[in-house]
Amino acid sequence: MLTITGTVTRGKGIARHAMKKKITAGVYSTFAFKPYPGTLNLNVSKNDIQRIQQQPSITDKHNRVYYPARMNGLPCYVVVWDTHIEIIAARQLRSAYRLPEGSPVTLVF
Fold first, then answer.
1. N- or C-end of the chain: fewer Cβ atoms within 10 A?
2. Separation CA 61–CA 10 (nearest Å)
3. Which residues contact 39 (CB under 8 A, 6 or more apart)?
4. What is the 3-state secondary structure (H, E, C) of the chain?
5. Can you give the CATH number for the domain in which 97 is found?
6. What is the rounded CA–CA span in Å between residue 40 and residue 48?
7. pLDDT value at residue 99
8. The pTM is what?
9. Domain count, the chain
10. For the chain, which ranges sit under pLDDT 50?
11. What is the pLDDT of residues 12-25, one digit of tens each?
12. d(C-alpha 37, C-alpha 23), whole Å
């Protein structure tokens, strides 16, 4: 089991539009839930990114890798980028947990 903590950071709003199309196209059909069309972005250390990439993952039909995790007990999937991660969940996490920019968020893999 891996536990990491990152800080909420502002995204560009691109994921919301891209995810709507992917949800319709069935890209997330291997997920255990229907994702909310948007992500929560977290800044994490490069070391944490490497540690996440060593965890079990699933791959969609476009070879995109997702890492199953839990945030506050809620199932989610993590997408890893070079400088940050994005959390995909069944609900809008920022408002559900009242997370302003800079808030700490802990994930368990």
1. N
2. 28
3. 11, 15, 19, 79, 86, 87, 88
4. CCEEEEEEECCCCHHHHHHHHHHHHCCCCCCCCCCCCCCEEEECCHHHHHHHCCCCCEECCCCCEEEEEEECCEEEEEEECCCEEEEECCCCHHHHCCCCCCCEEEEEC
5. 2.40.30.30
6. 17
7. 96
8. 0.87
9. 1
10. none
11. 666 665 665 555 55
12. 8
Distance CA 26, CA 7 (A): 30
Residue among 97, 95, 93 nearest 78 (CA): 93
- Report residue 10 as tokens: 């502002």
Q: What is the pLDDT of residues 40-53, one digit of tens each?
A: 999 999 999 999 99
Query: HSE (CB half, 13 Å, CA atoms) of 44?
Result: 27
